[in-house]
Structure formats: C-alpha cells, structure tokens
Amino acid sequence: MKRVLLIWRKSLNIVMLTLTGVAAFAVVSVLFLILGYLIFNGWRSLNWDFFTQLPKPVGEAGGGMANAIVGSLKLLFLAAILGLPIGLIGGVYLAEFGGKTFAFITRYTADLLNGVPSIVIGIFAYALFVLPVKHFSAFSGGVALAIMVIPITLRSTEEFLRAVPNSLREGAMALGASKWKTIATVILPAARGGIITGMLLALARVAGETAPLLFTAFGNRFWSPGWSQPIASLPRMIYDYAIAPYDDWHRQAWAAGLVLLGLVLIANIGTRLVLSRGGGGRSA
Amino acid sequence: MSSTATTIEQAVPPKAGPRAFAKRLRDGDEIAHLITLLFAASILLITSLLVYELWVNSKQSRAAFGWGFFTKVVWDPISGDFGAAPFIYGTLVTAVVSLAIALPLGLAAAIFLAELAPRQLSDGIAFLIDLLAAVPSVIYGLLGIFIVVPLMRTTVGPLLIHTVGNVPGIGKFFKGPNYGVGFLTAGVVLAIMIVPFIISVSREVLLTVPREQREAALGLGATRWEATWKVVVPWARTGIMGSVFLALARALGETMAVTMVIGNDPKIAASLFAPGYTIAAVIANEFSEATGDLYLAALIELGLVLFLMTFILNGLARILIVATERGGGHPS
C-alpha cells in the first residue's frame, strides 16, 4: 500500500513537472512563432517606398507611410517634452523629499493611472483638447501619450534614485551641500543611466499605442503641418490597413507592423542590455 | 518600502523651529521641495481631472438612462436608445476566456522557470518574455486577424464544435455558426497578450519564496512537485493573485487587438463562436463618428464604467502584490 502510494507520488511528480516544462516551451514557441511570422511577412513587404512615399489613393497599389512615420515621431516628441519633465521631477520628490502619507498616495495613484485603459485616456484628452475646439489635432494626441508617459517615468525615476547608495547623499551633505544641490549635482548624475533608460522605455511603450490616438490625433493620409491638424501615426495606419479589404493594404500593414515592432524592440533590448551591464537595477 | 527615506532623515539631524526653516529656505531646499511636490501632485490632479471629465461628459446619458443603462440590451444610435449590457457582457466573457487559457499555461510556465529551469536559462527566457509584453497591442491585433481568425474558422472552431459542442452542459457554449471572429477568438488573442504578464510577475513572486521553505518540504520527504505545489505556490499565493488581477485589468481594457477580432456586434449570445462587442471596442469604433450629444455621452459613460472596473482591479492587485512582498520579507 505504502509502496503504491510512493510510486503514485513519484509519477505524479514526474508528470506534473514535465507538464510545466511543456507549458513553458509551448508558450514561448507560440509567441515566437507568431512574431517570426510577422517578421517574415513584414520583411517581404517592406521596400524603400514605404519610408519615402505618401499613401496612395484607395485602389492604387504602392505608396508608403512616410507621413505616418513622421507623425509618430512628432507625437512622441510632444509626449516627451510634456510628459518626461513632470515624471522626472515628480520622481525626485517621491525618492528624495516625499513624506509618508502623501508620497504613498501619489505612488499609488501613479500605479493606478498607469493601469487606466489607454482608450479611456483617449476620451480624457478628447474632452480636454478636442471637444472645446471641435477638431482633431496632433497636440491632443501628444497630450494623450504624455499622460501615459508620466506615471511610468515617475515610478522608474523614483526606483533608480532609491538605488543610489545613501553614502553619496551623506558624503555630499557632510561637505556642506544643501539638499537640492546634493540631488542636482550628485544623486541625479549617479542615477542618470537608469533614469534615461526608464524614459526610453516609457516612450517605447507609448510609441505603439493606437487607442488613445483614434479620436485625438485621428489620422491623415497626407502631411500634417504644425500641431493643430489631424496627424497620421504608424499604429493607427496598421489598424486601418489591417481591417481594410485590400491585399495591397494588408501587405503594407505587415511592413508597418515590422517597422513599429523593430523600433519598440530595439529600444527595449538596447536599454535592458545597458541596464544589466550597468547593474543599475531593473525596471519592472 | 520607506527604509531609504528613514535613513536619510537619520543622516540629517531633524531641525525644527523658524531659524532652521529660514536656513533651508536660503539654501533653496524648501523651494526645491515645493517645486518637486507640485510636479508629483500633478499626478493626483490629472487623475482627478480624468474622473471629473468622464463624469461631467457622461451626464446626459446618466440622466437619460439611469441605472437601467447597465441592464438594457439595446444599442440603437438611430433612435437614440443606448444600453451597456452587451458590451459589459462581451468585456467580461472575453476576459474570463483569456484568463481560463492564460492562467494555467502562464502559471505552469512560471513554475518551470522559477523552480526547475537553471537560473541562466530562466533569466534568458524571462528577458524574452518581458520583450513580448512590450509588443504593441495593434500588432497582436494584426496577427490575430491574419493568423488566429483563419485558424479558428477552418480548424479549431469546427474541431471544438464537433467534440466539446456535444458535451451536455457546456456544449451550448461551443455551438452555432462559426465565423472565425467572436468571443473565443478575442479571448485567445487576449490570452496571448496577457500570458507574458502572468509569467513575468508570477516568476518574480515565486523567486521571492525563501529557499528554506523548499528545503524544509524536501527534507520532510516531499517530492519536488509536492514541495512546489503545496508549499511554494501557497506561499506566493497572494502575489500570484495580484498578477492575475493585473492581467485581468489589462484584458478588460485592451482595445485594438480585441476590436480587430471580436466581430463588433452588440449581441449577447451563449455561443463563444458568436461575434460580440466589448466596451473598449465600441468606444474605439464609434467615438469619432458619434453624432449627437446623447450618443457621445453614452460612449463616455461606457468609458467611465471601464475606468471603474480596471481601477478597482488594479487597486486590489497592487495591495496584493505589496502584501506578498512584505510577507515574503522583501522590502521593495
């Protein structure tokens, strides 16, 4: 009886452990198969026109997404100049000045804001900047992305500032530096690599966002001068082209998907490699 | 959590009184404090403004439909009659389906990575999985349209209909016409998207379980599996729950990928093969074309509902994860 039980337990052990291995293998291989498919299809469809031409009118084959690439860059630029400073300085507060209760509430709110579905952020930016002027604009899209950048930057900045050893703070203060001088000249430079990494990851994250742009930046099949016109973006183009019934558009959607994926992955891999080498901790 | 902060306070002797304050003011510390405080407080401002805008702009819809909004099945923009039930149903069903697929797979994979795989292999795979979590959702939607939908229509769908469809009880969920798009397809695509999340967070939580717990179980004669399943996993339970809630919140709020594969039809159907609609998808599709204030207000009220759902889930998730990290003796 006891022996039977032992055999049962041992076989259960082997079966279940094998199953976990199979699950890990299955998940990883499925995920990479589909990405491989994207790279295969995207690479086949990618050509020089994609980067240099405007979209062709419906029905005409060819054309590219030059305006969407520039549009995405413009939106990211807005997100960066509006969102990054707020996140950075707020992060300094949380790590260096923050009291107990207020810092806790801020941190918690930032995490919650980070979890708000991006489509809801889109509604918010719409209500703030589109509704009053009654037209879509690049600016409102940039604001929507900036709102998503802020909590990510805030938390990563805080994390990297906390990773700076206290001996540096104590050393600077012992030399008579005031607190803000300590932060500006010693602490921030020490955490610089990590903070910049966090910012890049935040931008990489919003670079692929489509939902908040649907009714803020909207979309555009032409160049969009200035900041107050509807503007094209790469993710939005992928969406439009993928659900359209034209084969040529599907081909371009794959190409755009590959370009977008390439940008996001390069930013992620690059920053993570720098981080792991610098040993400046890890952002979640 | 605030261990660093307390040491700084100890390093700088607490100064009280107006003279000390004047010195800090002269040094610029008080000004720096105030400025950074304002920037940090902007997070609170943005979040409250977000809630305020959603609330104010959905006023017309709330006034017109009241609580009935949540139970009404009609969505008729032409006659101006709006109900949220089909969208809430679709959102919940797709999230539950995705979790039913992703949780067992993700947890098993996390157990393998945390407990069995050599550390280097585990770290390498975790790195790749983290990259997958960074892939934009519109790309998952693209893959969903061109891989998952055809697969569902030609292979998986018919297979399920002919096997599980005949099982009494649960059979009714797997019956009916199969178009390729629908609740199940959306659930599968969502599962692909949230699996990296579940693996990543669960693995980290499992790794925080003290070694002694495993050693004690193994020392008492438990097999490796028993030590894992009866000691390590229960120890990490709250953290794993946290990861599940985070994943669920993400699945609920996911827009693009779902919009592209769910079929966009505001109906409540028992069959998982039926096309449906989710809150996020209807906002994405109809918001910029909404004519009339009531239509727009109804969509914004849907946004408010979605916001509250994810807000509550995320709140719970954070509490659970913080609780595990504290319970595991790991200050964050």
Features:
heterodimer, A: 284 residues, mainly alpha, MetI-like fold, 2 domains, disordered C terminus, B: 332 residues, two-stranded antiparallel ribbon, 2 strands, 1% strand, flat, disordered N terminus
> Please, how many helices of chain B?
14
Total E-strand runs of chain B = 2
CATH fold name of the largest domain in chain B: MetI-like fold
What composes the largest sheet of chain B?
2 strands, antiparallel
Query: Which class best fits the helix and strand makeup of chain B?
Result: mainly alpha
Strand content of chain A: under 5%
Our measurement of the CA-to-CA distance between the termini of chain A, rounded to an integer number of angstroms, reads: 49 Å
Q: Mean pLDDT of chain B, nearest integer?
A: 86
Number of domain modules of chain B: 2
The top-level CATH class of the largest domain in chain B is Mainly Alpha
User: CATH class of the largest domain in chain A, please?
Assistant: Mainly Alpha
Distance between the termini of chain B: 5 Å
Q: Determine the CATH superfamily of the largest domain in chain A.
A: MetI-like
Rg of chain A computed from alpha carbons, rounded to a whole number of angstroms: 24 Å
Q: Largest chain interface and its two residue counts?
A: A-B, 101 and 95 residues
CATH-level-2 architecture of the largest domain in chain A = Orthogonal Bundle
Uncertain stretches of 5 or more adjacent residues of chain A: 279-284
Write a structural description.
Chain A is mainly alpha-helical. Chain A folds into two domains: 2-45; 51-278, MetI-like fold, CATH 1.10.3720.10. In chain A, 75% of the residues lie in helices and 0% in strands. Chain A has helices at residues 2-45, 48-52, 66-97, 101-115, 118-130, 138-162, 166-174, 179-190, 192-207, 234-243, 247-278. Chain B is 73% helix and 1% strand. Chain B has 14 helices and two strands, in the order ααααββαααααααααα. In chain B, strands 1-2 form a two-stranded antiparallel sheet. In chain B, α7 (137-162) packs across α8. The radius of gyration of chain B is 25 Å and the shape is flat. The N and C termini of chain B lie close together (5 Å). Chains A and B meet through α1, α3, α4, α5 and α6 of A and α1, α3, α5, α6 and α7 of B.
